[in-house]
Structures are given as C-alpha cells and as structure tokens.
Amino acid sequence: MTGSKRIYALDTNVLLHDPTSLFRFEEHDIFIPMTVLEELDEKKKGASEVSRNGRQVSRFLNELIERGNGHGISNGLELTNPEGVTLKRGGAVGRLYFQQRTSNGHGKADNQILSSVIELRDQNKDRAVILVTKDINLRIKAKIYGIDAEDYENDRALDDFALLYTGSTELPETFWDKHPEVQSWNERGRTFYKLDRHDDEDWYPNQCLFLPGDNSVELRVLHVDEQRATLVLLDDHSHSNHAVWGIAARNREQNFALNVLMDPDVDFVTLLGTAGTGKTLLALAAGLAQVMDQQRYREIIMTRATVSVGEDIGFLPGTEEEKMTPWMGALTDNLEVLANPEEGGSWGRQATNDLLASRIKIRSLNFMRGRTFLSRYLIIDEAQNLTPKQMKTLITRAGPGTKIVCLGNVEQIDTPYLTETTSGLTYAVDRFKHWSHSAHITLRRGERSRLADFASEAL
C-alpha cells in the first residue's frame, strides 16, 4: 500500500443513499466502521427505498467476503467490480477494510464513527484519511477534531446546477446573415428550414430557438448533426385560435412547452420552473386535449413523490386513489380552471368535472414497480424529490404509445440527502438532452398574480 492512496471512511447515509458507492472511489481504499454495519442492520427491514438500499449494501459486502473465501479480511478485500458498476480508471481497484474492534466512542452513533476514524488516522499517519458523509453536522464535528470530511458527490449529474440544460436559447440578430444558404419548405401546414450548423451553435434535438425583436421568430430543432440542422417553425399557442383546451401561452417559454407537449413524436418531456410558472396547468391541458379531443392516449395518469416516500400513505383511509388525493391539491386546483364551462351553471360544471375525472387516474409511486403503461399520458409531479434510481424505475414503466411528462422545481427539494445537482429530475434532464424523442423547457416567468410575483421576488 502506497501513501498516495487515500482511505475513505463511509458513513451509513452514504451507503443507504447509493449502495454502489463502495465501488465509486477508483483505486482508493474504503473503511467501514462497525457502527455503520450495526446501523445497516437496523435499516434492512421494510419496503422503503432506504431499506432496499440497506439490503443491497449487505449483499455487496457478503459477496466481497465470499470472494475472499473468508480469509484475509484483516488485510482488506479487493473491491472487485460488481456487474453494472463502471470504474473510471482502467479497472484499478482499492481494498475494503472493516473496523476490527468495537469503537471507543460513547453515546451517539456519530461519535462512535468519529472515534473509529480518529483511530484509523492515527494508525495510518502516512496516508490521507477522509470521512465521507451526507450529514452536515457530522462533517462539522469532524472538522473540529481535525478530520478531513467530504460530502458524497459521485452521484451528481453535473458539477454546477447553473450549467443545467435549459431547453431554449436566444439566437443572435445576425442569425440569418450567418446562414445565407437556407433551404425552406412547407409540409402539412408547417414550415421547415435546413441549414449548415456553425461551431458555436451547440444545439440539441427539440431545443427551442428564438430570435427576439421586430423580426421575432421561434423555432425548434428537429434534427442536428455535426454539419447540418433541420428546424421547424413553432406553432403560436399564445393566440386564442391555437389555445390548448382553452389555455393560451402567456409567455415564450409556455409556448415552447405547449409545442413539445402536443408533439406526438416527443415521448419524454421535462418542465422545470418555480411555483406559478404554469407547469401543471400546461401539462394537464395538453393531456386533456390529446386524450379527450384527439384520442391519442387512453387516459391521463398523474402521480407525485410523497415527501414521506410512501410510509404515511398507509394511514390514510380508502383506496389507492383516495389515499393520494390529499397530495394532489395541484391537480384539483388546475382542474377547476380547465373544467369551467361558460354555460350550464353548477350542473354543467359538475358534469364536466365528472367526465374529466373519469379520464384522469391518480396513482401512488409505491406501486409502480412491475407495471407497464400502454398508450397513457403520465404526469409525474414534484419530480425533484425523486432519486435517479426512482426516476429510472418510473420512466421504464412506459409501454408503446405512452408519453411521460416530469414536472418539478429543484428549489423546493424536500427529500433528505438530495440536492439540486443530485435530484432525479436534474439527472433525467442531463441524460435525455441528446435523445431525439425528448424535450426540456425551463419556465422562468410566474403567471399566477402580481401578488405572487412580488412575493417570490421580495420574500
């Protein structure tokens, strides 16, 4: 063992957050305190995501011990790569060490972990020992004792949230001058353009482009390669004649969103924005138009991440849909806007509400595993509270003819250990931006009321 190799001591919350974190530290060594094993044992029971992760960590550890034939634990177990976990540096692996005796710490588990790490540091003075934990207070305690402590950041989708793909970009005023040889044609009532792409035009499929000013134009990238790009002129949903289920776009980003939501060739849409930008209303309006009028999908299925990750849902009375109803206030509020006929009075409104409710199903995330949705319009609300693994579980439920719309605001993450850069919504936006059947739009302007707009800025 050389001094250049670091030793990372992992806290329980890191393993419960990402069971594959054991194999994410390249050629460096891993140390697991005995207290962490005890906490994993306490967390293994249950059907929650945390419990499943705890059991997965135990299986990984048992597999590593069995590969060593029960020998050489004190000398460290080679962190061989399990199937599906990619190592970064040409297969170089570290070794896994366990605490060989009970910690000298007393009281809280955090103090026992700190004690074991201090002992490890004293035994390895020639090597850097780093505590990895997602617990901010434990990192503060470690700093007080002179221990290097870091957050687990290997699961971050990107280094800085400000770098996240926005889904739209402004074109320079000289855009048409830069592309003198543009092929244009009309097909089925739509206008298309094909042009040579410049090096500074880093476009993605279904990215929306806009040219402001007197000669304003709004376009969407249909196809792009290293040399050329095909663009299509966007429909103007801000005009009442092109309203979607009675909803007209109030700003440029809303028009972008309605265009991709109504396009049957776009199977996956992510809408990111703060409260009041119209995410849920636009998604529902587009869904109703395609379910009720165009009959493109059989029904709308709406779900959301309950902040308690499902445990509290069992204490609510009724069926699955009735249990989810308290979490679906946004759906109820928006349906009042969408199901408000001008004629028919209260009876007409009730009849419309009953008709729409029959085509909208509310489902819990807890029971999504193993299901397949055929020709459905699936709305996932509050997607910022999902982990990347949960997001993958949901998106892979899509069968033929299904469209998935993810809504969220990463400034309102309620789930512990998730941040703007590790949220499943951020992960999906970054991973899907190159796919030709997905689209993302960041909504920036609130459209609720002047009171809500002022409050969001001033408070």
Written overview of the protein:
The protein has two domains: 7-150, 3-Layer(aba) Sandwich (Rossmann fold); 161-458, Rossmann fold, CATH 3.40.50. The chain is an alpha/beta fold. The strands form three sheets. The chain has a six-stranded mixed beta sheet with strand order 3-4-2-1-5-6. Strands 7-10-11-12-9-8 form a six-stranded mixed beta sheet, with no helix packed on it. It has helices spanning 12-17, 34-43, 49-67, 109-123, 136-144, 175-178, 252-261, 279-293, 320-324, 329-338, 345-358, 388-395, 424-432, 450-458; strands at residues 7-10, 29-32, 77-78, 95-98, 129-132, 148-150, 168-170, 183-187, 190-196, 208-211, 217-224, 228-233, 268-273, 299-304, 360-362, 376-381, 403-408, 438-443. It contains 14 helices and 18 strands. Helix 2 runs antiparallel to helix 4. Residues 307-312 have low confidence and may be disordered. The chain is globular.
Question: Which key phrases capture this entry?
Answer:
single chain, 459 residues, alpha/beta, Rossmann fold, 2 domains, six-stranded mixed beta sheet, 19% strand, PIN-like_dom_sf, ATP-binding, PhoH, PhoH family protein, nucleotide-binding
The tally of domains stands at 2
How far apart the termini lie comes to 55 Å
Low-confidence stretches: 307-312
Estimated radius of gyration:
26 Å
Instruction: Output the CATH topology of the largest domain.
Output: Rossmann fold
Strand coverage percent:
15-25%
Main structural class: alpha/beta
Shape: globular
Helical amount: 25-40%
- Count of helical regions: 14
* CATH-assigned homologous superfamily of the largest domain: P-loop containing nucleotide triphosphate hydrolases
Q: Give the strand order of the largest sheet, numbering strands 1, 2, ... along the chain.
A: 3-4-2-1-5-6
Chain-averaged pLDDT = 85
Organism: Dyella lipolytica
Keywords: ATP-binding, Nucleotide-binding
Pfam families: PhoH (PF02562), PIN_4 (PF13638)
InterPro entries: P-loop_NTPase, PhoH, PhoH2-like, PIN-like_dom_sf, PIN_dom
